[in-house]
Amino acid sequence: MTILTILRYPDKRLNKIAQPVKQFDARLRQLVTDMAETMYQAPGVGLAASQVDEHIQLVVIDTSDAQNQLQVFINPEIIWSSEEKTFYDEGCLSVPGIYDGVERPAEVSVRALDLDGQPFELKADGLLAVCVQHEMDHLKGIVFVEYLSPLKRNRIKTRMIKEERELERTQPAAKRRRV
Ligand code: NI
Asked: How far is the CA of 46 from the centre of ligand 1 (A)?
């Protein structure tokens, strides 16, 4: 089992634009397995490939209480969003310890490919809708703190940089790579 290193905000690699997946091969399956393990261990309800420095359009999500319903979205597109909005306190594995309110459409319909390259559509509401939009933002290089005020964002940035420096001192990144 491989636990991947999750990039931390404000790492510039989180701003890269993810490319569409073209090859549905063993490497992709392995990446999905590793991303799922990484997400469950964190623990989190969603992880985008961008967060583990793989800049392809791939997202894993599991919003179930038992954490046993993994959903994989490859090359996802939002094909419909509701006019009704929802305001949710979001968190992100790349911005540990920070939660803040973001407004987004309350419901979305997503079209994506599964691990076999087969298309499917899904209508999401509640936490899943929030999560799908949050993870798809990562693929566009957007971290949710971009939606907050510049004041809040700068405060978060300063805190993250300070924590990263502290982490680097006590647990160098090379040793944090695998668990
Ligand atoms: Ni995130």
From this structure: 7
